[in-house]
Amino acid sequence: MQPTKLNHTLDSWTRAVSLLMLGGICYVLSGSALAQQPLPTEDQPQLRIQGSNTVGAKLGPALVKGLLQQQGLQDISLQPAGENETKASGFTADGRKVTVALAAHGSSTGFAALQDGSAALAAASRPIKSAEQQSLQAYGDMRSRSSEQVIAIDGVAVIVSPENPLQSLDTRQLAALFAGEITDWSQLGSKPGAVNIYARDDNSGTYDTFKELVLAPQGKTLGASAMRFESNDQLSDRVSADTYGIGFVGLPSIRSSKALAIADGESVAMFPSRELIATEDYPLSRRLFFYLKPGEENQWAHALVAFAQSPAG
User: Fold this and answer.
1) Cα distance between residue 89 and residue 94, in whole Å
2) Backbone Cα Rg of the chain
3) For residue 222, how many C-alpha atoms fall within 13 Å in the half-sphere facing its CB?
4) How far apart are CA 261 and CA 269, in angstroms?
């Protein structure tokens, strides 16, 4: 989904060329120039991406595949490379293999990977934190236009089992539920049963967003009984099978669960529809990002950012 309101709007970048920003200088490469860059040793990817599970589960691999197609690669494949990890690969016309590795273990892991050099691109489902920005300050301003790239607008969906008759909640009720203060569904007018809480882990940008938009404004913290998950999809599958479960995930991971309509303050309860998320009217809307270190020399990283901002992306 392309965002309609962005802090960093970019013109159309790609029409048979890739516009790369390296240290503030523009480089225009022909569509096949990236594939002609020197290749690393066998099994070493041209690009490593680390960070958000929300981005890395579906959107990131789709963008990488689109970039490889744009660059004219053939026999492109997306293969699991471990839990919450994907390897994308393809072949140039002269048979050279190009590989991109994506690891989706949570937004905070992306910024740590930028710092230790194990990834050239960080994917995040929330903005960079002040402490993370400070840890990377030796490279320059991580909030600059060239480093912080909004690539999509997403929504945090609050999900329950399809068997749960509840249709909506407000953020005050949500905070009380996830803090463990509401312990039985009968307290919300639903059928009796002990509430089971499912939440993302501490590395998750989705969890950070939920804390910022739901828990913190009500002065609450996540209850100790919450079951924690690295993966949006795994969390959603557990909730859909638990009549008394409730959790939160990125919009693409609703899967077989049921999303609730959410109200904030005096607003009307809203379901996480594409339209309401695109306009950022849905109370739990949030932006998704790619982050590059200033001066990053990996041209595939810059090309992927450019592709994500292009009409095709």
Assistant:
1) 15
2) 20
3) 22
4) 5
Confidence of residue 35 (pLDDT cuts 50, 70, 90): low
252: helix, strand or coil: helix
Kindly indicate the confidence band of residue 38, based on its pLDDT and cuts at 50, 70 and 90.
low
pLDDT tens digits, 228-278: 999 999 999 999 999 999 999 999 999 999 999 999 999 999 999 999 999
Distance CA 59, CA 52 (A): 10
Residue with tokens 């949500």: 174
Rounded Cα distance between 255 and 236, Å, is 7
Which run of H or of E encompasses 78? strand 74-82
**77, 95, 35, 44 alpha-carbon torsion, rounded to 10°:** 70
Shortest CA distance to 239 belongs to which of 254, 222, 251? 254
Render pLDDT for 70-102 as a digit per residue (tens, 0 to 9): 999 999 999 999 999 999 999 999 999 999 999
Confirm if 87 and 265 have CB atoms less than 8 A apart.
no
In order of 33, 59, 139, 264, 301, the CA distances from 296 in angstroms are 18, 22, 9, 40, 8
Q: Cα separations (Å) of 169 from 166, 179, 188, 218?
A: 8, 15, 9, 14
Q: What is the largest CA-CA distance in the chain?
A: 66
